Structure formats: C-alpha cells, structure tokens
Amino acid sequence: MVLIDHGRCIGCGICIPYCPRSAIRLDPNIRKAYINTEECVECGTCVRVVQCPRDAIVGVVEGYVREVQAHFSDPYTLHPSTGIPGRGTEEMKTNDVTGRFKKGEVGFAIDIGRPLIGVTFAEVGRFIRTLNTVGVEWEKANPILYLLKDLEKGEFPEELKKVKIHSAVLEFKVPISRVRDVIEKLKYLAETTDTVFSLGVISRVEEDFTIPVINVLGELGLKVSPWAKTNVGLGRPLIE
Prior knowledge:
Layout: E1 2-4, E2 24-27, E3 32-35, H1 45-49, E4 57-59, H2 64-73, H3 95-98, E5 105-112, E6 119-120, H4 121-132, E7 137-138, H5 143-147, E8 164-165, E9 168-175, H6 179-192, E10 197-202, H7 212-219
Antiparallel strand pairs: 1-4, 2-3, 5-9, 5-10, 6-8, 7-9
C-alpha cells in the first residue's frame, strides 16, 4: 500500500488535493500527512503525480486485496488475467478483429463507479445478479469474471465484497429483442445503487447504414449519440 514516511514528511500539504479519493489527510496533532487506508484504492496517483519536496510518499502494493484494487484503479497496472491495463478490458474497441458483437446482437458496456465515488465488489455483484435475470451473455474475457466465486449469484470471495475500487466495466450482449428488458433492469439499478454508472451500447451498422437499436432506445426515452465511438477498418477480414 502507499504510505507516507513521517521521518521525511514536513506537513506542507502539497499532496492532499491530488488524491481522487480524498484519502490523504493532515494529522493536526503531529502536523504530518497520512493516508486513510480504508479510502485508498491503490490508484497510484499520489506516487506518479505529486512532487513531494521530501520524497515522503512511498508506494508499495502488497497483499492480494491491495493488488486487486490496483488492477481496477491504477490505469498503468496490467491486469494479470488479460494483460491489458485500464481495468483489463478493450471493451468494443477491437470488434473488427474479434467479432464479439455480431449482426442482430447488441452489446453493453457498463462502467460502474468513478474515482471520487468508487464502487465495492459487493455492488458490482448486485449488478451482475440483476442482469442475470434477463439472460445476458457475459463477455468471458472480462477481468471481473475471473474474480467471481459464483457468476449466477454474482458472488465474490468474502475478502473482496467490501473492497472499494475506482470503477469496473461489465460487458455482455443480448439479441436486439431483449434490449428493452436490459434497459428496464438498468433503470432499476440506477434508482437503487449507491454509486454511479455510465452505459455504452454497442451495435454494428447495417449495410444500409442504419443502426436498428437506436430506434429501440429512443422508444425507451434514451437519448443516443450514435457517433460517439465508431471503429472501422481495425482489422481484416471483418468477422461476421
């Protein structure tokens, strides 16, 4: 974990505003900075960014739980299950090559949590359980699935349930006929979650340049930005 060496710290407070979790604080009794380990998620921002005049910030990630936090909070850490940094997934970015999402299918990428708010694995598990009720097909090459104790129940190992991370990405797909069911579940989750999430909808463009899922989402009252992220020609042949 990241620590502050009190033998070097002079209590200048330069480091305090840099922490996205507000985990760095100043002890008024000894006039030294310290890190609240309950709030720290091992993002590494303080180690990389802060120009401490005394080099008092020491970053050493030790232990299984702290390593897991770093994998989902530090964008420079490679996730061991996928070898990809930034929470360990490429999402839809290489679909031209991988063909994850085929014609007639709609993919979803749910980014749960944000640096200032974070999310616990227990809450990620609740999202998984809720979405399982509409029969989603989970992306197997997603690091969250490697940590699960039980996918059907959305259950993580006991030592991870209360652990907080910056954010996690859930990826799955459904036939276009099931999009309405997914959106209804996501609306329920939006009303009951203690964190925040953003929704990415992934769909291939038809030969006539239409995107059928846009009409479905519009009928459900969702505003769509269809050109937010368009990937064309990343690889050949295009997988059908």
